[in-house]
Design goal:
The chain is α/β, with parallel strands linked by helices. The chain has 16 helices and 9 strands. The chain is globular, with a radius of gyration of 30 Å.
């Protein structure tokens, strides 16, 4: 690979050229970044277009990433910032790798070479926020076989090296639904799922640009899906692999909760993790408007904002949709009181399209209706355009056939000649 030298310092302070095939290997925690195991990749994707990706993990267990997952607006970014401020942890901005990138890239059917895959990854709007160069990514990726799991691992390792740290971490909310796959690919992974009161989550999503037009029914269904999946994984997986932290506890007792999480991931707590002055690159510039609070110190005033800002009827509606799951998560005051039976019937009817068995059908019907509406609008616009063109032509033709006006003086002169 023809590229300029990429120099990093290993743990002992020795300069290491990462761009040369014969480069020296770092020692200590960073050593595993460049190890091969009998010439095999860390994870090999068996089928590129199979119904489900199957992976075989090689003997290298040095890669121990940290994943922060949970529903949107639950404090995932705030927690990611706290972890990124640790001197040993490099937290990638949200990549959406397993949630979106792989599916879109596979559907596009591009070339599966190291360079082509790396170029497509760095062109992704989410992944480009890592600000990694192609040379930095290829310096790591070319030590593995060109597969999606190895590409993701290379992104994390290259980002870790870029920031001069010893451990990689990543925060993508929807990776919660890929935990079994991620654990199979990277067995040394640690998963932190953050849960927040669904009533605060719903009102928070409605306050950001991308969620302003969401219905309460869809938001309640979304939160319940994340909360239930988190509780399911907590029951299924070892507490040494997967843990849940409540947003409310993190805001009220940040040092206590962060110390426990550092013990969970095997790192020492550092006071700088809670200091605003400690730099972080977790939040892209374009997201600062609605994620800027995550850079500030934890504030207990952010807890239970729904009590102070919403009407009893609105709270009752949320409890009607999410009450059972809220209670399962340990949240209080989830009863529906003082609501007439007719109102409850209306709420129940509005939620029917979001029921588990009916939601896929409702989505299909919605896409079909949207497609028909777009087609109707297109046909209507074309008809109006044709009608307008015909009207213009008719007016132009009528204008040519209209007799010319003759002035009175000209008419008198013609008569005098006669």
């Amino acid at each position: 690979m023809n590229t300029e030298s990429i120099m990093r310092l290993d743990q002992s302070g020795r300069a290491v050229d990462l761009s040369q095939p014969g480069r020296a290997r770092p020692s200590g925690p960073a050593a595993g970044l460049f190890q091969r195991v009998s010439g095999q990749p860390t994870a090999r994707l068996i089928s590129k277009r199979g119904s489900r990706s199957r992976a075989i993990e090689a003997a290298d267990t040095s890669f121990a990433p940290i994943f922060v997952v949970g529903c949107q607006r639950s404090g995932t970014t705030a927690l990611a910032v706290m972890l990124d401020r640790h001197s040993r942890i490099a937290m990638l901005p949200e990549t959406q790798f397993f949630n979106k990138f792989i599916h879109k890239d596979r559907a596009a059917g591009g070339e599966m070479s190291h360079r082509a895959m790396a170029e497509r990854a760095l062109a992704c709007p989410f992944i480009e926020e890592t600000h990694l160069s192609l040379e930095e990514l290829l310096a790591v990726f070319e030590t593995y076989e060109p597969t999606y799991p190895n590409l993701f691992r290379s992104l994390m390792e290259a980002y870790q090296i870029h920031h001069g740290k010893f451990r990689a971490a990543e925060k993508t909310c929807n990776h919660l639904f890929h935990v079994p796959e991620l654990l199979q690919l990277y067995p040394q992974s640690k998963f932190i799922c953050i849960v927040r009161d669904g009533r605060d989550v719903c009102r928070s999503i409605r306050n950001v640009p991308w969620g302003a037009h969401s219905t309460w029914e869809s938001l309640c269904r979304q939160w319940k899906g994340f909360a239930r999946e988190g509780m399911r994984l907590q029951r299924k997986l070892s507490p040494k692999i997967f843990t849940i932290v409540r947003y409310e506890d993190l805001m009220r007792e940040p040092e206590h909760e962060l110390r426990q999480l550092c013990d969970f991931i095997g790192e020492e707590f550092q006071p700088a993790q809670l200091e605003e002055g400690t730099g972080t690159d977790v939040i892209p510039v374009y997201e600062q408007a609605w994620k800027g609070k995550a850079r500030k110190k934890p504030d207990a005033q952010r807890v239970e904002a729904w009590r102070r800002n919403e009407t009893p009827l609105q709270i009752a509606q949320w409890n009607f949709y999410m009450g059972r799951t809220l209670r399962a998560c340990g949240y209080p005051d989830t009863r529906v009181e003082g609501v007439p039976l007719t109102r409850r019937f209306i709420w129940a009817a509005k939620y029917i399209p979001y029921l588990p068995g009916l939601h896929p059908i409702a989505l299909w019907a919605n896409r079909l209706l949207r497609g028909r509406n777009r087609l109707f609008e297109k046909v209507t616009a074309e008809a109006k355009q044709r009608a307008g063109s015909q009207s213009d032509a008719a007016r132009a033709e009528a204008k040519t056939l209209q007799p010319k006006e003759v002035s009175t003086d000209a008419g008198l002169r013609e008569l005098s000649r006669v």
